[in-house]
Each structure stands twice: as C-alpha cells, then as structure tokens.
Amino acid sequence: MFRRARRMLNRIARPNVPPMLRRANQFMANGDYANAESTFYELAGRAENKFPQHAPALYIQAGRAAILSNQTQKGIAHFRSGLTLLGTERRFARLEKIGNIILNELREHGLNNEADEIEQVIKNNLPTFTNQKENSATKKQVTLPTHCPSCGAIVNSNEVEWLDGVTAECDYCGSPIRAS
Ligand SMILES: [Zn+2]
Question: How far is the CA of 110 from the centre of ligand 1 (A)?
Fold first, then answer.
C-alpha cells in the first residue's frame, strides 16, 4: 500500500516527459524554429486527445516558432487553435493574459494586421465579464527557474499557472516547478 502511494506520488512529481517535447524545446533553444514549429504542432495534436490541458500551450509555442521562421499564416492558425482551446476549457484569465503577450509579440514583429486578427479571436473567446479576482490571484513575486527541470521548456513566470505560492506547473509537461 505504501509502495503504491509512493509510486503515485512519483507519478505526480515526475510525469512522463515525452522525448519529443524535450526535442521541441531543444529546437526552440537552438533557434531551429522550422523544426520547432513542426514538432510542437505534432505534440499539440497528440495532446488534444491525451492531455488537453497542455494542448493550448503547445499550439501557442508552435505559433511562436512559426512566426520566428517566417511562416506567418501557420503561426496565426496555431495561435488561433491555442487561444480557442483555452476558451473552450474556460481558462479565461489565462486566455486574456497569454493573448495579450501574443499581441505584443506580433506587434513587435510588425505584424499589425495579424495582431488585429488575433485580438478578435481573444475577444470572441472571452466571456463578457472576466474574473478579475482570478487575474490578481495568479500574480506572484517569486523567482522561478528559467527552464523546466523536467522537459527543458522555457519558463515565463508571467505565463505559468501556479499550484501554490511558490510552485508553478509546467505548461508543456505538467511537472511542478519550484521557485528558488
Ligand atoms: Zn516541463
């Protein structure tokens, strides 16, 4: 019984990280955005069935990789998939937050028409009133490691979901990431 409990704890603490996810993060880190795009996109498609909570972040990362490899139309399609899924999963605070980050990134790349298109996607997927309390509750002042210790994904403390005051959850593999 104890052994089973420990095994379950291990599974919670260290979920199986698909090697493909590590590879995708590695492509991104190396600036190989074309390969990052196709790998994140494939992971996102698989996640939709098995780990729907990770699919939005994977689509969004595929979108970033597409934009960085000058595949703008693909990028917009991936962003649209990721943001729409967040809406479907009713994760509105996150949709709003990550949506605004994407808008800034697109405008930084001079992609203003595309940003307008994505802005419309965000609006269409948000309820009329967003939960402000949820927004402020996710704002944390602790420092996270720059990369997920399990899968190597880049960790942005503005984008992650928090499990408690000092622990965030990796968007890509679900591992807990502790603030130092
Ligand atoms: Zn991870």
Answer: 30
Q: Is position 11 within any domain?
A: no
Calculate the alpha carbon distances from 121 to 34, 67, 68, 102 in Å: 25, 17, 21, 12
Average pLDDT over residues 89-93: 93
When computed from its CA atoms, the radius of gyration of the chain, rounded to whole angstroms, is 16
Split into its structural domains, the chain has a count of 1
| Two structure tokens written together for 91 | 């994760």
Q: How far apart are CA 162 and CA 160, in angstroms?
A: 6
Determine the distance separating the centroid of ligand 1 and the alpha carbon of 11, expressed in angstroms.
14
| Owning domain of residue 86 | 19-178
pTM of the model: 0.79
**Averaged confidence pLDDT in the chain:** 88
- Collect residues with CB below 5 Å from ion ligand 1: 148, 150-151, 153, 170, 172-173, 175
Examine residue 13 and state whether it is found in any structural domain, yes or no: no
Mean pLDDT of 31-48: 97
Quick check: is 131 in a domain?
A: yes
**162, β-bridge pairs:** 168
| Per-residue pLDDT reduced to its tens digit, 138-174 | 555 788 999 999 999 999 888 888 888 889 999 999 9
| Contact residues for 115 (Cβ-Cβ < 8 A; gap 6+) | 103, 106, 107
Q: Measure the CA–CA gap between 171 and 56, rounded to whole angstroms.
A: 9
